[in-house]
Design brief:
Layout: E1 2-3, E2 27-31, E3 34-39, H1 42-55, E4 59-64, H2 71-85, E5 89-95, H3 107-111, E6 115-119, E7 135-138, E8 142-146, E9 167-171, H4 174-190, H5 196-209, E10 217-222, H6 231-241, E11 244-249, E12 252-253, H7 256-268, E13 270-276, H8 282-289, H9 292-297, E14 301-305, E15 313-317, E16 320-324, E17 328-329, H10 330-334, E18 338-344, H11 346-361, E19 363-365, H12 368-374, H13 377-392
Parallel strand pairs: 4-5, 5-6, 11-13, 12-17, 13-14
Antiparallel strand pairs: 1-2, 2-3, 3-9, 4-7, 7-8, 8-9, 10-18, 11-15, 14-19, 15-16, 16-18
Helix pairs in contact: 1-2, 6-7, 8-13
Length: about 400
C-alpha cells in the first residue's frame, strides 16, 4: 500500500535542475511485511539521515564508502558524536580510499566514546578491493541505505549540480540481516594481525558464505572474485527469465554475459536503461557509450540523464526491485564489497518504475539513428581506449570514486 508522501525539505520548484525537472518528494510503501521510505531528494536524504541518528537510543552501526569533512559531513559526524555522548553505542567504519575527511576529523567521535575504523587500513589506496557500501542501522530496528555517500555533493540540489541519487529507509526483518553483516565486516576490519593474502581470503569467504535468505526481502552482498551467492548471481538468475528490465546506473560497463542477457530480455520483452549524461568523470560516459551499439540494435531503450550528475543505483526486474550500492559496472560485479536489497513486490516495483518514468522524461534518448550519427570512427576509438584503460586500473578515470 502506498502511503502519502512525506513532506519535502524543499518545494518542488526549488529543486529544479532544468525547466521541466524537479526531484520527487519522499514516498513510502508497505511491501512484504516491511516499511520502505524512498528519498529521491538530496536534502530529504540528509534530513532523514540526521533524524535517524538523533532518534537512536541504544546503538548505531554506520558504514560508508566516502565521508567528507565538508558541511554535510560535519553535520553527520556531530550527530554521531552527540549520540555517543548520550550513551548510544556508536560504531563507524569508512573505506580507506573513500575517507576524504581523514582520521583526525573523527577524533571527536572516539573522544565521546564511539568507535572509528577504516576498511582495509593496512592496505594502500593502490589496493583495488574497496568497501562501496553505504548504510546506517539504528537500534537494530531501522536502516537507511542506497547510493549516497556523506558529502555535500550527495545532498545538493540538481540546480547546483548535486548527485541525483536514491536512499531508502527500511523497517522489518531485513534490518537484522544488515546488523549481522555489519558485525562480520567489523570483525574483519579489526583483525589487524592477518597478512594481506590471508585477510583477502577471509573477506572472500565472508561474502561467499553469506546467506541472504530466500524470502521476498533479501540482503544480498558481493565481494572480490565471488560468483555464486553474489548479488549479481541472483540478478543474473532474474534476467534469465525476465520480460522487463528498468534500470538506472551511474556507471555502466557490465560483463559480457550480462550484456548478452540484457539483449535477450529486450528481444522477448522490454528493457529501459537510464544512464549518465553528466558525470564527474567524462570517461565514465565514454565507457558506457562504447557498449551502446549492440544493445540498441537488440531493442534496448537507452536515455542519458543530463540534468545533473547521476549516481543512482536502481534495478527493477519484472516484480523484483534492487536498491543499494552497486552500479552496473565490472567493479561492482567483480571487485568491490557491495550490497543490494532485493524486494519482490509488484506494487513496489510499479512505484519505482514511476520514479524512472520521471527521470526518463528529463533525459535525452539515445536512438540507434543518433548513435550511428555520433559514433564516428575516431569517437569509437576514444571510447574503446577509455574502456580498456578503465578495466586495467579504475583510478586512471577515477570511476571508483563514488
Amino acid at each position: 500500500m502506498v502511503v502519502a508522501p512525506a513532506t519535502s525539505a524543499e518545494t518542488p520548484n526549488s529543486a529544479t535542475g532544468g525547466p521541466d525537472y524537479c526531484d520527487l518528494e519522499p514516498f513510502s510503501i508497505s511491501a512484504a511485511d516491511h516499511e520502505f521510505t524512498f528519498y529521491p531528494h538530496g536534502r530529504d536524504r540528509l534530513k532523514s539521515l540526521i533524524a535517524m541518528i538523533d532518534s537512536a537510543e541504544r546503538e548505531l552501526k554506520v558504514f560508508y564508502y566516502l565521508f567528507d569533512s565538508d558541511t554535510s559531513g560535519t553535520m553527520v559526524r556531530d550527530a554521531l558524536v552527540a549520540a555517543a555522548r548520550r550513551g548510544v553505542k556508536v560504531a563507524l567504519i569508512v573505506d580507506d580510499f573513500g575517507n576524504d575527511a581523514g582520521a583526525e576529523f573523527f577524533e571527536p567521535l572516539t573522544e565521546a566514546g564511539g568507535s572509528f575504523a577504516i576498511f582495509a587500513r593496512r592496505l594502500t589506496t593502490r589496493y583495488l578491493v574497496r568497501n562501496h557500501q553505504k548504510f546506517v542501522i539504528a537500534d537494530e530496528a531501522r536502516v537507511m541505505t542506497g547510493g549516497a555517500n556523506v558529502s555535500d555533493h550527495y545532498f545538493a540540489l540538481p540546480a547546483d549540480n548535486g548527485w541525483c541519487d536514491l536512499s531508502a529507509a527500511i523497517e522489518g526483518a531485513v534490518v537484522e540481516q544488515f546488523s549481522q553483516w555489519f558485525d562480520l565486516l567489523a570483525r574483519w576490519v579489526a583483525n589487524e594481525d592477518a597478512g594481506r593474502t590471508k585477510k583477502l581470503r577471509r573477506l572472500r569467504h565472508i561474502v561467499k558464505d553469506w546467506e541472504g535468505g530466500d524470502g521476498p526481502v533479501r540482503l544480498l552482498v558481493g565481494g572480490p572474485l565471488v560468483r555464486r551467492g553474489h548479488w549479481a548471481w541472483v540478478f543474473k538468475k532474474d534476467l534469465r527469465t525476465a520480460k522487463r528490465l528498468d534500470a538506472v546506473s551511474a556507471y555502466f560497463s557490465p560483463p559480457r554475459s550480462f550484456r548478452r542477457l540484457i539483449r535477450r530480455v529486450a528481444r522477448r520483452g522490454e528493457v529501459r536503461l537510464i544512464l549518465a549524461g553528466k558525470s564527474d568523470i567524462s570517461a565514465a560516459i565514454d565507457m558506457a557509450r562504447s557498449l551502446y551499439g549492440r544493445l540498441l540494435r537488440a531493442g534496448v531503450k537507452i536515455a542519458e540523464f543530463g540534468v545533473c550528475k547521476l549516481h543512482m543505483k536502481l534495478l527493477v526486474v519484472d516484480d523484483a526491485s534492487y536498491i543499494g550500492s552497486a552500479n552496473l559496472d565490472k567493479r561492482s560485479f567483480r571487485i568491490n564489497v557491495e550490497l543490494m536489497v532485493r524486494i519482490e513486490d509488484a506494487g513496489l516495483a510499479a512505484k519505482l518504475r514511476e520514479l524512472i518514468d520521471h527521470m526518463e522524461a528529463s533525459s535525452d534518448a539515445m536512438t540507434l539513428e543518433r548513435y550511428r550519427r555520433e559514433s564516428t570512427f575516431f569517437t569509437r576509438l576514444r571510447w574503446r581506449v577509455v574502456y580498456w584503460l578503465s578495466l586495467a586500473e579504475y583510478r586512471i578515470s577515477r570511476v571508483s570514486a563514488s
